[in-house]
Amino acid sequence: MPARGRCGCAEPRRLLPVLRWLPRYSLRCLRLDLLAGLSVGLTVVPQALAYAELAGLPLQYGLYSSFMGCFVYCFLGTAKDVTLGPTAIMSLLVSSYAFHEPVYAILLAFLSGCIQLAMGLLHLGFLLDFISYPVIKGFTSAASITISFNQVKNILGLQGIPRQFYLQVYETLRRIGETRAGDAILGLACLAALLGLRAMKSRLRPAARAEPLAARISYLIVWTSATAAQNNYRIDPNQELLAMGFANILGSFVSSYPITGSFGRTAVNAQSGVCTPAGGLVTGALVLLSLAYLTSLFYYIPKAALAAVIIAAVGPMFDAGIFSRLWRVKRLDLVPLCVTFLLCFWEVQYGIVAGVVVSGVLLLYSIARPPVKVWEGDVLLVQPGSSLHFPAIESLRDMICSHALAAASAPRCIILDCRHVSSIDYTVVVGLAELLRELRTHGISLAFCSLQDPVLQVLLSADLEGFQHFPSREEAEWCGGAEPGSSEAATFSSSSQSSLLPSGLLQ
User: Fold this and answer.
1) Which of 398, 408, 428, 498 is most buried by its number of CB atoms within 10 A?
2) What's the CA gap between 482 and 486, in Å, rounded?
3) 466 near 446, Cβ under 8 Å?
4) Per-residue pLDDT tens digits for 114-159
5) Domain count of the fold of the chain
6) Closest residue by Cα to residue 435 from 459, 461, 471
7) Quick check: 448 and 468 in contact, CB under 8 A?
8) Each residue of 368-404: pLDDT tens digit?
9) Residue 416: enclosing H or E segment and its boundaries?
10) Please, what is the Cα angle at 471 between 470 and 475, to 5 degrees?
11) Phi, psi of 122 (to 5 degrees)
């Protein structure tokens, strides 16, 4: 009975993370959350206006999209630092489908929320694991360039520039002589000020309590304005999908366009010392106050100033060093990176899909062609380097038969060392049965050694004819009629007889 009670209490706490921290809430947490919420609020208001411009929507829709996520995440979020709201990349995607019509953007928020909510309820958060780091870096780096160049027309005061990136570059360079001096001066001045604040932040020491109030306020302004960092979070992806799903669905009823987690504002939240997700309540309240009293002033905000805010926000997302790091560490990962990076200049969504497909193909190839070591001697020793699944069995059979039957004097025994094989499927079992029969017709026996328990149980259950297994390679070699270690000795004395498959591409 007590166990049932514990389970009954655990389920609401899992679905409503607010129940985990609310009973322990204190006045100290309230003070820290107020400060963090105010800092994030001062950041989100100008960014929301700029991102609405990027999405091709009236400026007020940026603020419409900035408060519901704060309230929802307070109850459903799993990380105290994460803030939900409009972001540069999401705004870029919205601009591709909203066609400057707010009603389409609002519908997009509702449909996105439904999909996210369904994925969270079905526990499909694991699908995010199939988006590799090179794909993410290629996407964010390309988006940084695309978004930044998209704002050059606003800084230069150019009108009628197409949305497509390549046409955008061509038209901007062709019409650069039409630059409006006032817009260019204002935009470049704002951009220089933001970059200067970022440079100051890296050299600024924290303001002590003993310093004048003006000095402490100046430090807070510089620190808040200059923070587009990223924290390393380990969160529950299914719960996060639920939180974002509810935030987008409810946000659509207050004219929000799709929102997601923000890197920059999350960093501000974390570095402000936020204690719980309740800091989002303060941020949301500040946004609502801005909507209530400042909307009449939005008309007078220059597009050049908003463009400078966007460029300063997305610039750090470009990671030039990722190309050299992958060249040093794993050159094959440059393929999905470059595919994603280049295609994102055509359409962002196509770049992401293409990168995921290329990463999947490389993953499937490594499964279909696992590395296999072969030692030839009195006994042919074959050692797969990983688990065996159905795409790999035909290749393994062909490789074993070609080595066994192509030799001048065929070995009497082949040993399959399975120490690295942790799982097999039924297709592999069928393939091994056919391999046993084929080798037996040529007077060659096949022995298994170093089988892990799950693999051994599968093979024993299959009741393969002629199946024999040994705990170690040495025992298998004795039964095969060779002296222990003879195959390895042959490997070292004649390196041309050893091979590693596949070679080249997967190295």
Assistant:
1) 428
2) 7
3) yes
4) 999 999 999 988 888 888 899 999 988 998 898 888 888 889 888 8
5) 3
6) 459
7) yes
8) 999 999 888 778 899 999 989 999 999 999 988 888 8
9) strand 413-417
10) 60
11) -90, 5
Task: Note the Cα 39 to chain centre separation in Å.
Answer: 27
Containing structural domain, residue 21: 2-133+140-315
**Closest to 75 in 3D by CA, of 19, 12, 8, 11:** 19
* Threshold 0.85, pTM exceeds: no
Q: Are residues 285 and 401 in the same domain?
A: no
Let me know whether 182 and 239 are in one domain: yes
- Cα-based angle 368, 371, 375 (whole degrees, multiple of 5): 130
Structure tokens at 307: 């463009």
| Residue 60: strand, helix, or coil | helix
CATH of the domain at 472: 3.30.750.24
292 vs 60: CA distance, rounded Å: 11
Determine the Cα–Cα distance for residues 404 and 29; give it in Å rounded to an integer.
71
Burial of 92 (0-12, 13-18, 19+ CB in 10 A): buried
φ, ψ at 404 (rounded to 5°) = -75, -40
State the Cα–Cα distance between residues 469 and 476, nearest whole angstrom.
8
Burial class (CB in 10 A: 0-12, 13-18, 19+), 155: buried
By C-alpha distance, which of 434, 375, 368, 367 is closest to 404? 375
Report d(CA 190, CA 198) in Å as an integer.
13
229, 12 contact by CB (below 8 A): no
Chain-centroid distance of CA 132 in Å reads 6
Task: Name every residue whose Cβ is closer than 8 Å to that of residue 471 and which is 6 or more positions away in sequence.
Answer: 449, 450
CA atoms within 13 A on the CB side of 123: 1
Is residue 506 in a domain? no
Mean pLDDT estimate for the chain: 83
Residue 84 has pLDDT above 70, yes or no: yes
Q: Token digits for 131?
A: 């988006």
Q: Could you count the other beta carbons within 10 Å of the beta carbon of residue 232?
A: 4
404/297 same-domain check: no
Q: How far apart are CA 108 and CA 93, in angstroms?
A: 11
Residue 380 in tokens: 């042919």
Separation CA 366–CA 369 (nearest Å): 5
What is the Cα–Cα distance from 290 to 312, expressed in whole angstroms? 23
Under DSSP, the state recorded for 390 is G
Say how far apart CA 329 and CA 486 lie, in whole Å: 36
- Residue 2 is predicted with a pLDDT of 44
